[in-house]
Amino acid sequence: xxxMVTGGAGYIGAHIVRSLKxxxxxxxxxxxxxxxxxxxxPADVPLVEASVLDRVAVEKALRELSPLEQWLETLPxxx
Length: 79
Prior knowledge:
The chain is of the alpha/beta class and 79 residues long. The protein contains 3 helices and 3 strands.
């Protein structure tokens, strides 16, 4: 399973990202870097620089970087 961590370039989010990776999970970080730092995201973890308020960027990240295509298709307005 792949997890999307919003705010994954911040202090707490970066710890969550590392913990998920250590436990064998796939991880994608979505962060607008307003307070986070890209250097906190491991090199092998995709970083999507966008706000959680940017619906188009979030949908694109979910479609391209995590196996949620079928789940997304069930949500209103996400087809």
